[in-house]
Amino acid sequence: MDETTSYELVDHAPIEASYALTLLCCAFAAADRPKRIVSTLHHLLSGRFKSLASREESVLCIQIVREALIKSIPTCGIPKIINALSVVHDTIRKHDESLWNEIIASEASTEPRSLEQNPNVRDRGSALFETVYGPKTQKLRDRLTSVHPDLYDPIIVQDAYGRILARDSILDFRATEYVNLVVLLAQVRSGKDSDGMLDLQVKSHEIGCQRAGATEEQVEFVRGLANVVRNK
């Protein structure tokens, strides 16, 4: 993949530039290429993205990247996200320790750390799940429960949706669906190397993006960004 191509996509995206850069980092994480996040962050910190040139914009963008990586856990797994977050941590601190301290100070989480502190976590997870899947919610809920009694509740509705995906202090529903979609697409293989088993989830989150208010142009941009990363 030509780095210039991916950076040009960020500068000419039909979504906010900070979201576009974030999706690029999430796609690299999902494709197990976290070292490519380093060069992306260096490009950001050197002011080479036209619409993300100020320090304030860099701080906000890195906060969004970190939150999006946390939200990528349900779709690409903890090991990849540990590696990606570690790369972000090490890159920023090496570049500018004071910038890192500024990021941490301004993103102090308001999310409760335990279920006891947030007894409504299951309800907000259930509400988000229904928003994403619409009229297919009950059928999908029944299917997941039949596969394993713990799969829908607590694992998906409480833990994945309630505690992770429904967090909205930094990323709203539409941005979260962009993340879900690009992370899934970055893991899709083509041809003989794939059984096509992720296609259903990809379609579901394309529809989820639309339910969140994304245009077809924006969804197509997310697809294109994932393709650039996946096809190198």
Structural account:
By secondary structure, this protein is mainly α. It is built from 13 helices and no strands. It has helices spanning 3-11, 17-30, 35-45, 55-71, 73-76, 78-95, 97-106, 121-133, 137-147, 151-165, 173-186, 199-211, 216-230. It is globular and about 50 Å long.
Topology:
Blueprint (H helix, E strand, L loop, with lengths): L2 H9 L5 H14 L4 H11 L9 H17 L1 H4 L1 H18 L1 H10 L14 H13 L3 H11 L3 H15 L7 H14 L12 H13 L4 H15 L2
Helix pairs in contact: 1-2, 2-3, 2-4, 2-6, 2-11, 2-13, 3-6, 4-6, 4-7, 6-7, 8-10, 11-12, 11-13
Distance between the termini: 4 Å
Mean pLDDT: 91
Low confidence ranges: none
Helix-and-strand structural type: mainly alpha
Rounded radius of gyration (Å): 18 Å
Helix-strand sequence: HHHHHHHHHHHHH
In DSSP terms, counting alpha (H) and pi (I) runs of 4 or more, how many helices?
Answer: 13
Biggest β-sheet: count, sense, barrel?
A: none
The beta-strand count equals 0
Shape: globular
Share of helix, binned: over 70%
Task: Kindly estimate the percentage of residues that lie in beta strands according to DSSP.
Answer: under 5%
